[in-house]
Records
---
Amino acid sequence: MQIRPAAALTGALIGMSALFLPTATAQASTGRTTHHHTVTVAHRGASAYAPENTLAAVDAADDLGIDWVENDVQRTRDGELIVMHDTTLSRTTDVEQVFPDRAPWKISDFTLDEIEKLDAGSWFGPEFQGEAVPTLEEYMDRVSDNHQKLLLELKAPELYPGIERQTLRELRREGWLDHRHKRRLIVQSFSADSVRTVHRLRPDVKTGFLGTPAVADLPEYAEFSDQINPSYTTIDAGYVSAVRSVDGAHGKPLEVYTWTVNDGPTAVSVAGMGVNGIITNKPDVIRDALDDAS
């Protein structure tokens, strides 16, 4: 478990204490309200301000007062779970310099020890030089330290047979499948089969399907999903209403978390459609726009 600087921890504790204040008091101390109860989710962490899917991006979201972060989970050649979006290492690390003869630099071709040698921060800015690719365990430790919540994506699960069971095992080992933590966790994927598998293995875990299924197909997805999470460019108020009229796997109306919205006017428009959450690289911009509009 990694420990953050004292100032950052103090900020996190202050932010946490506001959660337990009466609503009026919390709003008075922070100057913030919630628009339509729309959740703001930091996409790959606060990825407009720190290198995506790193511990620095988790901390950047925390420093902005953002409770929810989103990440992507994949598996190394030696079977370890790491957090990275692309199925290759080249865009967000210096793998081409460190291992020039290993093209196309697929995650599944590298061991954890090799990946830990990479710099996953310098591509974003010199101040992040040496930032590492985190393991899922390291990532969960940091989210726990920050008292944040996690929207966890199983990325390209077809490349990693059994990753659903392995991820759930890791979450259980980290304490994230107890009653208290499960309220802070959603597991999602673009693969319906993967979401279905997670629901079968742990029907108590909240799940989301990434995509925009046809309205006629929503009852089928609702058998194993609690959320339908589409691109904002593919939805309108009618579609959101249709999704929310169907009860999901836990008997509550399906939720909609839409992605990736990075400007205030679009966020206000999408929130007006009735979505439950907005996934964004700029969580402060989205939150503030929603607050100003409410």
---
Amino acid sequence: MQNRTESLLQQLSQRILILDGAMGTMIQRYTLTEEDFRTPELASHPKSLKGNNDLLSLSKPQIIKEIHSEYFKAGADIIETNTFSATTIAQADYDLSHLAYQINFESAKLAREVADEFTAKNPDKPRFVAGAIGPTNRTASLSPDVNDPGYRAVTFDQLAEAYSEQVNGLLDGGADIILVETIFDTLNAKAALYAIQEVYEKRNIPLDPKEGGIPIMISGTITDASGRTLSGQTTEAFLISISHVPLLSVGLNCALGAKELRPYLKVLANKAPFFVSAYPNAGLPNEFGQYDQGANEMADQVRDFLKEGMLNILGGCCGTTPEHIAALAHMAANFQPRKLQEEELEETLD
């Protein structure tokens, strides 16, 4: 694991790394039925399971491996595990909380197998697995009941416990990175970071990737033109709130297209002591909730980020496909990665 962390840091110092695109968008291409989501053990499960995409790592692992392969072929350096909703909290909607660990373990194992295959074919371009941790479908900062603003549907301790199980599954399955993503409530993210710290301590894993630790990536979500997360923080406030941990990177994803994301990414690029990531949606959704922005149009919008030296890691979120990732990878190869403040200081002293 130390060797993969060192390799990742070396790659980041040399070039902009490419993250994969949307998992859900690719799964939709398969037009799956209810039966496709059911393992033999779940054949008579009373609740509908269609749409529980994380479950496909157990019921249709070959599909998930194919999607990972498509993104690697398109030029991705890092793929995310199929675990966005693989917590006991999110899986409770399907009465499948008991499968949370297994989903995380198997999803990381699948991604690891594909990453190792591609690395073996081209050792000069090592491929990495990011264990994806979504925000869950509950928020620790806001009440879901307008008539009871003090009510919370989940506690910090419940979130931390759920995240701990997820992190253990991802690490046991072989993830190189832990990615806490699509953060709309910083208190949820803090619970995830708390859980990660506890798991690392028990496993004797350093927090700092420079000390051989398993890197932690954080990616928040600006929900609208106000420039704030759902729980009300500005980009800078969000950065300050999570900077107590020696992160690999901080960034933004989802909710907005590349053009709309630019001013908030600039804040991170100017102020973050970590690497900066971005994986925007393929534009804004149309009236049917579909994403129409093509690969080249998205790449054109992202070019401004790269010209200004704002990014170290670039990928795509909702609506993006291997075509989008290929266009981003091709373009990013022509630009230098953002320099960390310590690198700039070293150059000044030299």
---
Amino acid sequence: MTTSDLSALADATATAAGGAVAVMDPRGYVVAYSSVPGQPIDDVRRDGILGKQVPAEYMVHHIDPDFRRSSTVHAVDIPGVLPRLAIAVSSDGDYLGSIWSIASGVGPGPPDPRSVAALTRAAAAAVPLLARHHRDGADNPRVRALLTDPEVVTAPGARYLVLAARVDSPQPQALLVQLAGLLELTFGTATDSGCLVEDGRVLLVLESEDTLAFAAEAEEVRRRASAAFGVSVTCAIGGPQDRPSAARSHADWTLDVIEDGSQTTTFECSRVPITLRRARDALSDVALALPAVERLLACDASEGTEYAATVLALLTHESNVAAAAASLYLHPNTFRYRLRRTKELFGLDLDDADTRLLVWLSLRLRTAR
């Protein structure tokens, strides 16, 4: 078994390095730890082992990009806890986890060469073990079912929230895995909770209907992740819903309409732009506009005129010519002249209510792209 092999590696490394050892996966979960008697430990190690994951306040040291890209042993000295030696475990650029050893002798000088050598050997030996652990535990069937299956069985009366997040990076996959780890460290103890990295985003589901409290905690994670990664992180929340897959859809739709790096946003706060986007997508294959509108738009495109903006301004301001003209910085007489020309050139009649509605939809949804 991989876990027992990693535990044996942790014991051997702790003996050679002279300090208690813990092996972490990329998300900060403790996958193995040493049990050599008599070696000093502290509360961070105890909490990490009991909780099976790095305490959230220390996670920043595990997701440091410089550490993850390095192949050398690092000394980590945090006030209030025992110092550590740490080394990342990677294979062909793929970060698999890390090995940490308590090292009471770490100080201003270089660490003990024997401890450094022991950790370096351990990192090499851990590559196939952590790679196998990653393959075996990469996907949680329950979390995937909650997020994708509308018929998944849930507890009677249960309500679910889903967070969708993306990172603004040309190669986001490693950062998404790290973000998933931060989210699971924060919310992993909630009922029916977990993360999935899919389609260029992180999805977190949990059983809860307290949107405000969840959004506040998620925003704190977003800020910490943005600072640690050095890139924008954007989060959106859907739900609460009886069906977690419906909450996932709402979170996805919200993420699609908000700007990168903005504060954590909920579906309810974004309902209007979401509705416009969904309407545009649903009608994209339908010849929605009247022929007169198509001719008007073709004229604007070929001649550089602004008939579409004129008509849309009138409809947006509910036929208030003064307000519509002001919105385009036009004199009302100039505005009225343009309106007359739309009827003369394109046969566009804005006196009929249904026609006004159809024209507004066609022009408004085009500008929402």
